[in-house]
Description:
Oligomer: single chain
Radius of gyration: 26 Å
Strand content: under 5%
Amino acid sequence: xxxxxxxxxxxxxxxxxxxxxxxxxxxxxxxxxxxxxxxxxxxxxxxxxxxxxxxxxxxxxxxxxxxxxxxxxxxxxxxxxxxxxxxxxxxxxxxxxxxxxxxxxxxxxxxxxxxxxxxxxxxxxxxxxxxxxxxxxxxxxxxxxxxxxxxxxxxxxxxxxxxxxxxxxxxxxxxxxxxxxxxxxxxx
Length: 188
């Protein structure tokens, strides 16, 4: 688009026709601003959809991506809100998938999962609802992890015990649970 003979901004062919720009006419400043905003919004929405096509994302991840790409806060917010309304962004579904994947691929304690999800910008109530529905015995999961990783070692050896403590602590398990495992599961 050229305004007063000078290049102002670019529009796609789709925007060119949908905004009736093919008719040569005088355009008021307000209409130019409206066209810029519409083109910018559609571009942001398209960019967000491409980003979401790679994998499921949180609302905050999409918003930050759009702002990193140079879209202003209002445009980013509008694009995110529309994509939420269309079902492209769903933080609850993200939490459910994240918890399921974590439990199968790389189990961690509920508290650590909660912390990771909060860092992704997900509302605490949303996280708590999903985690409350998630029925898992953390002690059994921790024992399984230890058997899988340290099964061939002597768990009575002090060096191995320290490694087990560090391993389980890193996965978010508390001192009491780890001690209980050594007392009851691994007889020490």
